[in-house]
Amino acid sequence: MTQISWRTSEELAARVRIAAAGQHRSVNEFITRVLDAATNPDLADDEMARIRERLARAGLLAPPGEPVERPDPDAVAAARRAAGRGVPLSELVREGRG
After folding, report:
1. Contact 41, 50 (CB under 8 A)
2. What does residue 58 show for φ and ψ, rounded to 5 degrees?
3. Tens digit of pLDDT for each residue in 2-59?
4. Are the beta carbons of 26 and 20 closer than 8 angstroms?
């Protein structure tokens, strides 16, 4: 288990204590739940929010407003060719049916 120090204003700390007490929770449990809700994709409101949060956590989501560089067309073509190799799905299904 990890321990983190938190610096904040007296006013915010007091509000957090009041909110935690209102839910019959310790300040630690309250803060843990709040931070989990803020960072856990499984607790997002809808599927798109969950996907965005997972992509952001993986470092694959560009922040809003930043220009996104398009991939090299030759690299995309090479990836398409590589993805087109292998056993077709229909063949795997047919083999699975015996």
Report:
1. yes
2. -85, 0
3. 898 989 999 999 999 999 998 899 999 989 888 887 778 777 778 777 777 777 777 7
4. yes
How far is residue 48 from each of residues 39, 44, 62, 63, 73, measured CA to CA in Å? 15, 9, 15, 15, 28
- What are the residue ranges of helices labelled H in the chain? 10-22, 27-39, 47-57, 73-83, 89-97
Q: Which two tokens stand for residue 6?
A: 């938190």
- Global confidence as pTM: 0.48
**N residues, the chain:** 98
Q: Say if residues 44 and 37 touch (Cβ distance below 8 Å).
A: no
Six-digit token string for 1 = 């288990």
- C-alpha 20/C-alpha 51 separation (Å) is 30
Please choose, from the candidates 30, 36, 5, the residue with its C-alpha nearest in 3D space to the C-alpha of residue 17.
30
